[in-house]
Amino acid sequence: MNLWHRLGVSVAIVAAFYIIVTEAFQDKTYYENYRWHICGSFIGLGIALWIIGRIVNKRRQSPPPDREGAVSADDPEETPESREPFLFLNVAYWGAMLVVFGLIITIVVPRREAKPKPVAARTNSVARVTRIATNPPPQPVAFPTFKLQGVVYRQPDPSVLINGRTFFVGESVEGAKIIAIEPHSATFEWKGERVVLRTPD
């Protein structure tokens, strides 16, 4: 196999390895975590195989001691290059390829996916469900601090005097709704509770 054939095969193998790493491993979590370990392993193993392969190839290229000087007589076409192993069986070749694979791993950067961010709910329904589920202790009702000064019990529209103003049934005073007026008292609805205020004696 001549130089151009070797170069073409090597480029094809490197391209295939690059595609495999990019498509199959780039978006994997373990590739992101162990990328440099894998790179170092490829390069270290590749250097070791290249050194071993060079030693083995030199031994194959050198003729046996009993045939020194008789190479041309037995086989005139036999040269040191012809005694090299087939490309895919050459340990030095695969050592160099593993080093190239390690360099490719430094180029292929892990693909990080965008992590979803938590978004607060825009409705109050979740808060209501949470309050019901947790069943918090009831809070004491703080009734507004106004004073019932007097009652004008005139049918059909009785009224009350509060803080110098007159109010009728159905009206609200500081958020407390008047629901009933008696001759000496008034009943208010405040946050689901009923509160009765009496006139001063």
Q: What does this protein structure show overall?
A:
43% of the residues lie in helices and 17% in strands. It is built from five helices and seven strands. The longest helix has 33 residues. The model has no long low-confidence stretch (mean pLDDT 77). The strands form two sheets. It has a four-stranded antiparallel beta sheet with strand order 4-5-6-7, with no helix packed on it. Strands 1-2-3 form a three-stranded antiparallel beta sheet, with no helix packed on it. It is of the alpha+beta class. The chain has two domains: 105 residues, no CATH class; 51 residues, no CATH class.
Structural class: alpha+beta
Give the fraction of residues assigned to helices.
Answer: 40-55%
Q: What profile does the largest beta sheet have? A: 4 strands, antiparallel
Q: What is the chain-wise order of helices and strands?
A: HHHHHEEEEEEE
| Structure summary, number of beta strands | 7
Number of domains: 2
Mean pLDDT: 77
Number of helices: 5
Quick structural gist:
This protein is of the alpha+beta class.
Give the secondary structure arrangement, pairings included:
Blueprint: H1 3-25, H2 29-61, H3 71-74, H4 91-107, H5 125-134, E1 148-152, E2 159-162, E3 165-168, E4 172-173, E5 176-182, E6 185-190, E7 193-198
Antiparallel strand pairs: 1-2, 2-3, 4-5, 5-6, 6-7
Helix pairs in contact: 1-4, 2-4
